[in-house]
Design goal:
Length: 171
């Protein structure tokens, strides 16, 4: 019985984490509709919105599924994996899936001065310059809570829609 209970708890825990990762990935994909990039920077040369992902997070696998769905709806979205410090040229969004401050510093240095939306789900990363930081879920993943660092958004030449800002905690 103990083994069965342990297995069920593991399945429930994994299902909850998978649902949370899927909710965060859907949120990141929807950000595309609420962010305005400078002229000529909204897509790469092929017309796709490129999301570069750093780290190893369950959100990245879910993001690939969300990108496929978004592409099927008419907005071409490509997800690629990079390492911290890699050039971000051609990317519109970078998802930082690693909660290491040294790795964050490398990503932020690569993003400096570029119209690239930085997104993370690590505690306090908005205070370190991440533009959109997804907070931990308190209601089982049904609603994504997030904060926006409007100063770094403005410095990158991006604009975030007022409808989205109304739902955010603004830093």
């Amino acid at each position: 019985w103990i083994c069965l209970v342990a297995l069920l708890v593991g399945v429930i825990y994994t299902s909850g984490r998978t649902a949370e990762a899927a909710a965060k990935a859907e949120f990141i994909a929807k950000l595309i509709d609420f962010v305005e990039w400078p002229a000529g920077k909204a897509t790469d040369g092929s017309g796709a919105v490129v999301i570069a992902c750093v780290g190893d997070s369950p959100v990245i696998a879910a993001l690939k599924d969300a990108a496929a769905k978004k592409s099927a709806e008419g907005t071409k979205v490509t997800v690629r994996t990079i390492t911290a410090g890699d050039p971000l040229a051609g990317s519109q969004i970078v998802f930082i899936g690693v909660c290491d401050k040294a790795e964050l510093a490398k990503v932020m240095k690569a993003a400096a001065g570029q119209p690239v939306l930085t997104v993370s789900n690590c505690p306090k990363f908005a205070q370190f310059g991440v533009m959109v930081n997804i907070l931990e879920e308190s209601d089982g993943g049904a609603k994504v809570k997030f904060e926006v660092n409007t100063m770094t958004v403005k410095e990158a030449g991006l604009k975030i829609g007022s409808q989205l800002l109304k739902l955010a905690t603004v830093i």
